[in-house]
UniProtKB/TrEMBL annotation:
Protein name: Extracellular solute-binding protein
Originating species: Streptomyces azureus
Keyword Membrane appears in the UniProt entry: no
Residue ranges crossing the lipid bilayer per the database entry: none
Signal peptide region: 1-26
């Protein structure tokens, strides 16, 4: 699950203040010489990691793993509070969006001695967890890409085949065949489709494309696939860039077009979106939207919608001639204040090994970072009758796909704090995309400190 809450930004600021004043010097809660505490947020993955813990304990007599699972919003709030109070775990599941901030605050233990090799994992996953200082702070855990989920009954009723949906293209001028498909899938309360005369954009029954909100500063399941397939990048460098590029004319043309879908009535207005109860997946589940861009971590969720036959398609081809998707990857990190660093590092090494990753893959809830783990996941999904090729093909076909990472830079929380309201103003209040020039300047001023 990848939902960001602004409380995390405030909490991270509190963390910075507390570390400066000398707090967070105690050891991890529940730690001891024979116990390793481990936190994760995904309840669906808990059984898989409990199985890994059994295997680890068998190989390491005298070492026990204590796993705590917390919901996404509670997870980051309590983790940040833990760094302040000295009650953080020995090991925790880390997200790339927070990595830069935690690395800068020096609350992570270097993992250079684990022997993590880039070639042992899917492309880019290991390299993303190297800090500005050249040290490693995360061991690759899993990865995800984004695809287009769609209600097959709705697309069939609209006369759209799976082949057509997998061969859509877009551009910021007229939206291309992608926008035509989304318009045709949109139906107002009088039964008129979005591309028919008399369509009422103010009284829509079914939107062609679900909304996942404004997208903060990364737009993972919103606009990122369009911006990247137009040739844009978040920063001036792939990792640890010194300048964000939200003032790019290319980027702003993408954003103007993307949020313009809501103005045309093809996508819900921002007022209809709710981070807690009306996300893209719930809009599709309720029959209020025909399609949604969403991540691989949501595969089982969409597959479980009762009375809905949900399938997936590749992201559309962009102006560059390539398709694009963010390829995000989680990692396991050791806290610097851990009382059991030796045991913690052993556990992280085990988590990053094929032994554990093949076990996790076998549960069919996530794509593990190693190639063997990924293969195990694909096989597990296949047994469930789920085709996951829309998510795995972008990783295998580098000729036709561009995969890219969440922006890796310092002060990521500050970037999010500034970009979240800026994007919502454009989406919900009709503010011009040129307003991003000033926001970008503010972010880069902070980044230059």
């Amino acid at each position: 699950m990848r939902i960001r809450l602004r409380t995390l930004v405030a909490a991270t600021g509190a963390l910075a203040l507390s570390l400066v004043s000398g707090c967070a010097q105690q050891g991890a809660a529940g730690s001891s010489a024979n116990t390793v505490t481990y936190w994760l947020w995904d309840a669906n993955q808990l059984p898989a990691y409990q199985a890994c813990a059994k295997g680890f304990e068998k190989e390491n007599p005298g070492l026990n793993v204590k796993i705590t699972q917390l919901g996404w919003s509670d997870y980051w709030t309590k983790l940040t509070a833990g760094f302040i109070a000295g009650t953080q775990p020995d090991v925790f599941t880390d997200h790339i969006q927070n990595f830069g901030q935690y690395a800068d605050l020096k609350v992570l233990e270097p993992l250079d001695d684990l022997g993590i090799e880039n070639a042992d994992y899917q492309p880019g996953l290991a390299a993303n967890w190297i800090g500005k200082d050249g040290h490693r702070y995360g061991a690759p855990k899993d990865w995800d890409t984004v695809a287009l989920f769609y209600n097959s009954k709705m697309t069939k009723d609209a006369g759209l085949t799976a082949g057509q949906l997998n061969n859509l293209a877009w551009n910021p001028e007229d939206g291309g065949t992608f926008e035509k498909a989304i318009a045709h899938l949109t139906i107002d309360r009088n039964g008129k489709r979005g591309d028919e005369p008399g369509f009422d954009k103010n009284n829509v029954k079914v939107y062609g494309l679900a909304s996942n909100g404004g997208g903060f500063g990364d737009g993972q399941t919103q606009w990122s696939t369009f911006a990247a397939s137009a040739g844009w990048s978040y920063l001036d460098k792939p990792r640890w860039g010194t300048k964000y590029q939200y003032d790019s004319k290319t980027f702003q043309s993408v954003i103007k077009w993307y949020f313009g879908l809501a103005k045309k009535g093809y996508m819900p207005p921002l007022s209809d979106y709710n981070v807690q109860s009306n996300q893209a997946n719930t809009q599709v589940a309720a029959g209020k939207a025909a399609t949604a861009f969403d991540g691989a971590w949501m595969i089982s969720t969409y597959a479980g919608f009762k009375g809905r036959d949900i399938e997936t398609a590749l992201t559309p081809v962009g102006p560059t001639g390539k398709r694009a998707t963010m390829m995000n990857g989680l990692a396991d990190s050791v806290t610097k204040a851990s009382k059991n660093k030796e045991g913690a590092k052993k556990w992280v090494a085990y988590l990053a090994s094929d032994k554990c990753q093949k076990v996790v893959g076998g549960y069919g809830v996530v794509f593990p970072a190693t190639k063997a783990g990924t293969e195990a996941a694909v096989a597990a999904y296949r047994k469930k009758g789920i085709d996951v090729s829309s998510f795995t093909e972008p990783v295998a076909d580098t000729k036709n796909f561009r995969t890219f990472s969440y922006p890796i830079a310092s002060y990521s929380a500050d970037m999010t704090a500034l970009m979240a309201p800026a994007m919502e103003d454009i989406y919900g209040n009709g503010k011009p995309v040129s307003s991003l020039d000033e926001t970008n300047e503010q972010i880069n001023l902070i980044l230059s400190q």
